C-alpha cells in the first residue's frame, strides 16, 4: 500500500488512482469523498450506540422487545453530521441531553435544605465514557474503511462514464 498525500489515506494502485482522479470532475470527486466519509462515520455511530445501549437504561424509552433484548427507543444516541463544504464528518452524542450525564458522569447530588426538611441524597452517575470507548475500538476500522470506500467510489464513478 502506498500513501496518497492529496486524499490523506493510503490506497494500493496509486498511479491508476491518480489517472482516474484527474479525469473526474470536482463534483464527482467530491461525491466519492462524501460517500466514504458518510459510511466511515456511521461505523463510529453504530459502535457508540452499541456501547451506550449495553450499559444504560433510560426512563420511559426503556422497554423490552419480543425477543427479550433491551431496547432504548428507536432513535440513535449518536448523530452523524456531514459538512459538504469542508468535506468533513462529525459524530456527536449531544443531540440527546441525557447522554452527556452518562458519558461524563455527575457529582453527588443533594436536595436543598428547606424549612422542615433536611437535605436528601439523590445519588450520582458514574462516568461510562461510551463514546471514548467506541472511538478507541473503531479507530483503525474507520480509516481502513475510508481508504477502501474512496477507491471503490472513484472506480464506480469512473466506470459509469
Tell me what the structure shows.
It is a single chain. The chain has 161 residues and is α+β, with helices and mostly antiparallel strands. The protein is 49% helix and 17% strand. It contains 4 helices and 8 strands; from the N terminus they run E-E-H-H-E-E-E-E-H-E-E-H. It has a two-stranded antiparallel sheet with strand order 1-2. A two-stranded antiparallel ribbon has the order 3-4. Strands 5-6 form a two-stranded antiparallel ribbon. A hairpin with a 4-residue loop joins strand 5 and strand 6. The chain is elongated.
Features of this protein?
single chain, disordered N terminus, 49% helix, 161 residues, two-stranded antiparallel sheet, 8 strands
- The global form is elongated
Structural class designation: alpha+beta
Sequence stretches where pLDDT stays below 50 over 5 or more residues = 1-7, 58-63
Largest sheet: 2 strands, antiparallel
Task: Provide a count of the helices.
Answer: 4
Task: Summarize the amount of helix as a percent range.
Answer: 40-55%
Write down the oligomeric state: single chain
What average pLDDT do the residues reach?
A: 77
* SS elements, strand count: 8
Q: How many whole angstroms does the radius of gyration measure?
A: 22 Å
Order of helices and strands: EEHHEEEEHEEH
Beginning-to-end CA distance, first to last residue: 27 Å
Q: Numbering strands along the chain, what is their spatial order in the largest sheet?
A: 1-2
Provide the β-strand percentage band: 15-25%
Amino acid at each position: 500500500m502506498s500513501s496518497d498525500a492529496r486524499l490523506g489515506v493510503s490506497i494500493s494502485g496509486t498511479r491508476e488512482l491518480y489517472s482516474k482522479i484527474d479525469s473526474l470532475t470536482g463534483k464527482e470527486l467530491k461525491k466519492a469523498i462524501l460517500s466514504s466519509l458518510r459510511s466511515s462515520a456511521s461505523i463510529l455511530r453504530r459502535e457508540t450506540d452499541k456501547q451506550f445501549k449495553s450499559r444504560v437504561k433510560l426512563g420511559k424509552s426503556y422497554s423490552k422487545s419480543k425477543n427479550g433484548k433491551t431496547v432504548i427507543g428507536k432513535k440513535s444516541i449518536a448523530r452523524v453530521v456531514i459538512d459538504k463544504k469542508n468535506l468533513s464528518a462529525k459524530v456527536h452524542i449531544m443531540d440527546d441531553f441525557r447522554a452527556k450525564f452518562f458519558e461524563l458522569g455527575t457529582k453527588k447530588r443533594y436536595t436543598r435544605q428547606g424549612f422542615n426538611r433536611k437535605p436528601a441524597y439523590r445519588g450520582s452517575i458514574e462516568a461510562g465514557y461510551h463514546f471514548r470507548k467506541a472511538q478507541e475500538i473503531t479507530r483503525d476500522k474507520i480509516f481502513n474503511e475510508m481508504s477502501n470506500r474512496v477507491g471503490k467510489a472513484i472506480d464506480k464513478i469512473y466506470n459509469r462514464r
